[in-house]
Amino acid sequence: MVYQVYPKSFYDSNGDGMGDIKGITEKLSYLSELGIDVIWLCPVYKSPMADNGYDISDYRDIDPSFGSMEDIDKLIKRASEKGIKIIMDLVVNHTSDEHEWFKKSRLNKDNPYRDYYYWKKPKPDGGPPNNWRSVFGGSAWEYDDKTGEYYLHIFAKKQPDLNWENPAVRKEVRDMVNWWLNKGIAGFRVDAITYIKKNESFGDIPVSEWDGLASVSEMSLNQPGIHEFLDELSRETFSKFDIMTVAEAPGVPEEDIKKYIGPKGHFSMMFDFSYTDIDSVKDGMWYETREWSVSELNEKIARSQLLTEKAGWGAVYLENHDQPRSINKYIPEKDISLKSEKMLGGMYFFLRGTPFIYQGQELGMTNVEYDSIEEYDDIASKDQYDCALKNGLTAMDALKALHRISRDNSRTPMQWNDKENAGFSTGKPWLRVNPNYKKINAEKALKDKDSLFYFYKEMIRIRKESPYSEVLTYGSYSPVFKKGEDVVGYARILNDRKIAILANLGGKAVQLKLDSAVKKCILSNTEYKEGRDGVICMEPYDLLVLDLSK
Ligand code: GLC
């Protein structure tokens, strides 16, 4: 079980308003109480924080706002005493523009670091070399006066892309990865890794939107040749250690999944976006969302699970630091309750793969609605807000879109108690605390045996240390309902063992007929009643985890 910590928002030990590494060490008992095995630590390396640490200026140093190398060593040690391992974020598609390599690279055209990044001449009209749109919005190219050329940035302009074609870059990356692994970390979550290879024509692509640009994905996601880079990386680093790696790998074609996570794949597991991005418009602007249905969600989960199972092992999740809070995404506002929160947890927690929990998810933390763009911090939210205004949205509508999709929704400070600043910091928090902290906080949850926290704890126990652990770990995945139901349903099967997981996400009661008799209800968020002739009645937002073994 992996727990994702966003360090800036987790716990501030020194009152400067920002979470830090010592703060995480102080809260290890909380995590240990929940029962997790691994912490995924979002970046704590030295960084000017344009993208909160995903813009690294020194891979081998810790940002002073988070603490020191000594603090990290202590965290690794203290966590290990509690049986918890630490994995770090590996961000190697790009660096910060304040990294030494880039500073040297931009000085002139013929220094050895020039080729560490992608530099291109302007078009004859002086414009960017092509019409690629960066992931955060706007051109993917930034002009640099000094040498009169543009550099490529798939993400923000303070995140220039490393040129993986250059063997010197690949060697720097490998040496750094091994340096960290030798320090005793348990692996990496690998950031935006499917972007490292670009289409070297660097040509224009057909314009897809009003901004005259086209999504960079087409020319930089999963391009032919990427596997040579990744083979080399995993051969020379990961495979030499007993570690886990999980790739953030958007855009992997189905037939390529095995190259990522198969027996000879580059990584132990990867995140799939197909069902967590169910509300986003393909290659559209972030602020655009689409309608979806429960049966579509069920189908997407089934497809993702079956494809992953064919190839290797999966990573299952509902939230992370880039996603809004899951309860707001999957459950209509009027139906948000402890019951529907538990249902949502159970819906994904027993899928085949390693479950990931994002900080605060176990408390039912929700999206935040700031009143003005100034209150937002996230660089992507600001870029998207600007794009929305340029596209004719009113400021009010653009703000409404942020309330729904901003990455700051999941980045608000962790809600520890009902005291000032939710107990996150004694200083002024870098991002305003969600005003609902008096109702939703860890202290309250820990005092209430019926809370969502204890429900997650119980789900972890069932997966890890119960008579059902084996089937829930190694069992295959089988969808229970194919079409038309408002229920996400699946079974985990191992030899003669069979567990069904049923989550009624629709707002209506349903009656279901299962093909096997129910031996026992293992977990639910409601009182389980079996109807006549093996028919099961599920009220809205019921969750049932049933033992159907013979
Ligand atoms: C990944 C990270 C995201 C970051 C981006 C650029 O998608 O999860 O937070 O902004 O990469 O590094």
Task: Report on the architecture of this protein.
This protein is of the alpha/beta class and 550 residues long. It is built from 17 helices and 22 strands. It has helices at residues 7-10, 21-26, 28-34, 69-81, 100-105, 167-182, 217-220, 226-236, 257-261, 294-311, 326-330, 338-349, 379-390, 395-405, 442-447, 452-464, 469-474, and strands at 2-5, 38-41, 45-46, 58-62, 85-90, 119-120, 132-133, 141-144, 149-152, 187-190, 214-215, 244-248, 269-271, 315-316, 354-358, 476-479, 487-494, 497-504, 510-513, 520-524, 535-538, 543-547. An 8-stranded parallel β-sheet has the order 13-12-10-5-2-1-15-14. It has a 5-stranded antiparallel β-sheet with strand order 16-17-18-22-20. The chain has a 3-stranded antiparallel β-sheet with strand order 6-9-8, with no helix packed on it. Helix 12 (338-349) runs parallel beside helix 16 and helix 13 runs antiparallel to helix 14. The longest helix has 18 residues, at 294-311. It is globular, with a radius of gyration of 23 Å. The structure holds alpha-D-glucopyranose (GLC). Alpha-D-glucopyranose is lined by residues 51, 54, 91, 155, 191-192, 248, 321-322.
Give a quick precis of the structure:
Helices cover 28% and strands 17% of the residues.
